[in-house]
Structure formats: structure tokens, C-alpha cells
Design a protein that fits this description.
With 419 residues, the chain is α+β, with helices and mostly antiparallel strands. The chain has 14 helices and 20 strands. It has helices at 9-22, 74-83, 100-106, 113-116, 151-155, 189-201, 214-224, 252-262, 275-286, 288-293, 310-324, 350-369, 388-391, 394-407; strands at 2-4, 26-29, 46-49, 56-60, 65-68, 86-87, 123-129, 135-139, 164-171, 173-174, 180-186, 208-213, 241-247, 266-272, 297-300, 303-304, 327-329, 331-333, 338-339, 342-345. The strands form 5 sheets. Strands 14-11-13-12-18-19-16 form a 7-stranded antiparallel beta sheet. Helix 6 packs antiparallel against helix 11 (310-324) and helix 11 runs antiparallel to helix 12 (350-369). The longest helix is centred in the last third of the chain and has 20 residues, at 350-369. The chain is globular. Bound molecules: flavin-adenine dinucleotide (FAD). Residues 27-35, 38-39, 50, 70, 92-94, 98-99, 101-103, 105-106, 108-110, 159-160, 164-165, 289-290, 377-378, 414, 417 line the site of flavin-adenine dinucleotide.
Length: 419
């Protein structure tokens, strides 16, 4: 194993030219926060870290774009855009430490997707170093542009298997007003799921629609001391689920009043009119995974189903948890149908590990059966490589292999990931 820490595109090109010539595997690493094992380098690899490529090269308010090196931390770009009166919306839960290169290579989602879309929706163009060390530019800086095949979109989400991204041109948007937040709690998880259907079906201008179940709320409380699970009403029973509903519309108060009226089965409803309070609630939601990690060993799923099937997915997760006798915490981007059932188990106990693996298989299968996908935002990586043929048809798989062979003929870029 060797580590390369380039500062420039020329450094990356030189490293790849050598690796190509000597057939050495190269695994690019941003912050290493990916959740599908895509940046986990097999023995004998060169790890190419982007930790020194942290330049924000350009931030243009007229063209509403930013040009950055891949190692820029997502939150740093968001802060720089905000200083210019603009916004870079993509906000994975890992926003404080993930890198733009990693976000591009996984097409990262986050809380904002229900309104603004995923990372790829903001990528205008890329500088890429192909496997043999050749440097190219894909895409554009203009608002529109359709010259040739869309190689930018091909590279977005390619998890370091087709080329190394060395520069990213990103679209920015005018900064929206601070969001207001509605908190709705429910007596059952499926009641929360039904409210999600009502909210997305109503076409409201929502900028986040997140869910946490009882297990997650309790774990977040144990980590943060926020008291989310303490419940409302005289008996102060812990809710089965909580929805966090945000709107950054100029008419947010009105939007959230309409949203509250649609949560007919809610046990409790409250609007956080202070944006700081709303941000604290979203920060609690970002702590969902770190909180659940403390319960034991865990396997995290990342399934995404049509929004009309969220309730069916949640019911299936509850059935699987009961059948296997496991705790499965559920949180996720409910407004996108993107759920992260987190299967808690004891890896040192073979029976518990086997039950967790069966639960993971059952939930991922359920997502496919419901017309969904094996991965909404974390990517295939190494975790779901064996699942890809369950989702893609043979023609698409063959075309994908042909693309990989054309761009990386010696298969040096992230071998063992995705395909
Ligand atoms: C607490 C927590 C919350 C999270 N929340 C979300 C969420 O809400 N939404 C979401 O989508 N993800 C989420 N993630 C997953 C993860 O943060 C994202 O996938 C993120 O985009 C990975 O960025 P990274 O810099 O850590 O990339 P890494 O993990 O280092 O790499 C990920 C992949 O990108 C490739 N790569 C990295 N840089 C480049 C480059 N310059 N060129 C080519 N390939 C490259 C790597 O080879 C690897 O295949 C979360 C993770 C954690 C730990």
C-alpha cells in the first residue's frame, strides 16, 4: 500500500501515468466518509488522497458558479457561497467533513434534495484525469450546453472507477431565506409515512422532509441530550416517529401551516419559528447515524422507493425487525422516499450476524419489489456490488462494462467497487 497526496492536477496525472504503466490499482480518497466501502483500498493499492487539493479557485456571482478542487470540504464551499449572497444547496449529513470530490463521485444527496436535488444537479463541468494520466475537461460553464455526450453525468456517481476528478465547476443559486421548521410526532411509524405521502402529494414548497423513528430519537437524545424523545401531552410518551418539515419559501409560515393541517394523525405539532432552533433540530437529525452507531454493531441500508411506497417500505422494515428479533433504527430523507434502516446487531454472535444479514437482504429486496433502488445516495461501492445485477438489466450491465473497459483498460481505478 502506498499513499499519494497530490496538490495539483499535474501531480495526479503523473501518479496515474505511472500506475497505468505498471498496472497498479489506484483508489481515490476524499474524507473517507462514504458508507458503501467505495474508498476502502484493497491490499497493493495506491491510495490517492485529495486532502491537499482544497482550493476554492473561483466564485462568480454573475455566472453563479464556483470552481473548486476536489478536496474542498462541502461546508466550506457552502460558507463561501453564503458570503457571496449565494447558496450551494447540497447538504449530505456529512456536510461538515465530506469533500466535494467525494460528493461528486457518489452523487451525494442530503436533506435539501426534496427541493433542490442531488449533487449532480449542480455539477456543470469537471476536470478529470483518466486512468492513463490524460487530463480532460467535460461539460461547460454556461447555463446551457449540449455539445457531445454528457460525460460529466457519466462521471458523477462513478465512485472513482472511471477517472479522478481534479476540478469541479458547480452551479450556485441565490441564497434563500432562513428556513422555518415544523416538528410533527406520530404514534406509529406508518402514520408518519402516510403524512409524508400527504405532504409530497400536496405540492408544498418544502426544503426538507426528514424522518426519525423511536429508536433513532432515543439514540440521538442519549448522544446529544436534546430530549427529542420525551414526547408531548400529559403522559409524555416517546413518539414512534418524528417528521422534520422545513420550508425556505418566502411564504414559509403559510406553507408550514398548510403542512400542519395535512398531518391529520399527528400526536403533536410545533413550529420552530426561530431559524436557529430549526437548525438545531436538523443538526440532531444529522446525528442519527453517529447516535445509532453507539448501540452496537450496525449495518446501514440506503434504499429509495417511490414516495407513494414509503408506508409499504416502513411496514416491511417493522416486519423484518420482528421476524429477526433485531432492533432496526429508521431515519432518512422521507420526502425523497430514501430511507436508512440501520440494523443493530452483535457481530461477535454468529446468530445475530446472520440475522442482520438476512434483514439487510430482506429490506433491499423489498425496495426492489416496491419499484425502488438498492441505493438512493450512498452508492454501490463494495457493499452492494453483488446487488447491481439485481437492479440493472443485462444490456445496461454490458454497456457499463464496455464504458469501464474503454476508459480504464487495465482496470486500475478502484477495482472491486461498483461493477
Ligand atoms: C454521518 C454521515 C452522514 C452521511 N449523510 C449522507 C447523506 O445525507 N447523503 C449522502 O449522499 N451521503 C451521506 N453520507 C455518506 C458520505 O458522506 C458521502 O457519500 C460523501 O459524498 C463522501 O464524501 P467523501 O469525501 O468522504 O468521499 P470518500 O468516502 O473518500 O469517497 C467516496 C467515493 O468517492 C471516490 N472519490 C472521492 N474523491 C474523488 C475524486 N476526486 N475523483 C474521483 N473519485 C473520488 C472514492 O474513490 C470513493 O469511491 C454520510 C456519511 C456519514 C458518515
Amino acid at each position: 500500500m502506498a499513499l499519494v497526496r497530490p496538490r495539483t492536477t499535474a501531480d495526479v496525472a503523473a501518479a496515474l501515468a505511472i500506475a497505468h504503466e505498471h498496472r497498479v490499482p489506484v483508489v481515490v480518497r476524499g474524507a473517507g466518509s462514504g458508507l458503501a466501502g467505495a474508498a476502502t483500498a484493497p491490499p497493493g493499492s495506491v491510495v490517492l488522497s485529495t486532502a491537499r487539493m482544497t482550493g476554492i479557485l473561483e466564485l462568480d456571482p454573475v455566472e453563479r458558479l464556483a470552481v473548486v478542487q476536489p478536496g474542498v470540504v462541502t461546508a466550506d464551499l457552502r460558507a463561501a457561497a453564503a458570503q457571496a449572497g449565494l447558496a450551494y444547496p447540497p447538504d449530505p449529513g456529512s456536510v461538515a467533513f465530506s469533500t466535494i470530490g467525494g460528493n461528486v463521485a457518489t452523487d451525494a444527496g442530503g436533506m435539501c434534495c426534496v427541493k433542490y436535488g442531488v449533487t449532480g444537479d449542480f455539477v456543470l463541468g469537471l476536470e478529470v484525469v483518466w486512468a492513463d494520466g490524460t487530463v480532460s475537461r467535460t461539460g461547460r460553464r454556461t447555463v446551457k450546453g449540449v455539445a457531445g455526450y454528457d460525460l460529466t453525468s457519466l462521471l458523477v456517481g462513478s465512485e472513482g472507477t472511471l477517472g479522478v476528478v481534479t476540478e469541479v465547476t458547480l452551479r450556485l443559486v441565490p441564497a434563500p431565506p432562513p428556513a422555518l421548521t415544523l416538528v410533527a410526532t406520530f404514534g406509529t411509524l406508518t402514520a408518519a409515512g402516510e403524512a409524508v405521502g400527504a405532504l409530497v402529494g400536496a405540492g408544498l414548497d418544502l426544503s426538507a422532509l426528514e424522518v426519525m423513528d423511536r429508536t433513532t430519537l432515543t439514540a440521538v437524545d442519549d448522544l446529544t441530550g436534546m430530549g427529542l424523545a420525551s414526547g408531548a401531552g400529559p403522559d409524555r410518551r416517546t413518539p414512534a416517529a418524528m417528521l422534520l418539515v422545513q420550508s425556505d419559501s418566502p411564504a414559509a409560515a403559510e406553507v408550514l401551516a398548510r403542512a400542519a393541517a395535512l398531518c391529520t394523525d399527528a400526536a403533536d405539532l410545533a413550529v420552530a419559528e426561530d431559524p436557529a432552533e430549526g437548525e438545531a433540530l436538523m443538526e440532531a437529525r444529522r446525528q442519527a447515524l453517529p447516535a445509532l452507531e453507539r448501540l452496537g454493531d450496525w449495518i446501514l441500508d440506503d434504499v429509495c422507493v417511490p414516495r407513494s411506497r414509503v408506508v409499504a417500505l416502513l411496514q416491511r422494515v417493522e416486519e423484518v425487525a420482528a421476524a429477526e428479533g433485531l432492533v432496526i433504527g429508521v431515519f432518512g430523507h422521507a420526502g425523497d422516499g430514501n430511507m436508512h434502516p440501520t440494523i443493530v446487531h452483535d457481530r461477535s454472535d454468529p446468530a445475530s450476524l446472520a440475522a442482520a444479514q438476512r434483514a439487510f437482504d430482506a429490506i433491499t429486496t423489498a425496495a426492489l419489489d416496491l419499484g425502488g433502488t438498492i441505493t438512493g445516495e450512498h452508492g454501490v461501492g463494495r457493499l452492494k456490488r453483488s446487488w447491481l445485477a439485481r437492479e440493472l438489466d443485462p444490456g445496461t450491465l454490458a454497456a457499463s462494462r464496455a464504458v469501464k473497459a474503454a476508459l480504464d483498460p487495465h482496470g486500475i481505478l478502484n477495482p472491486g467497487a461498483v461493477l
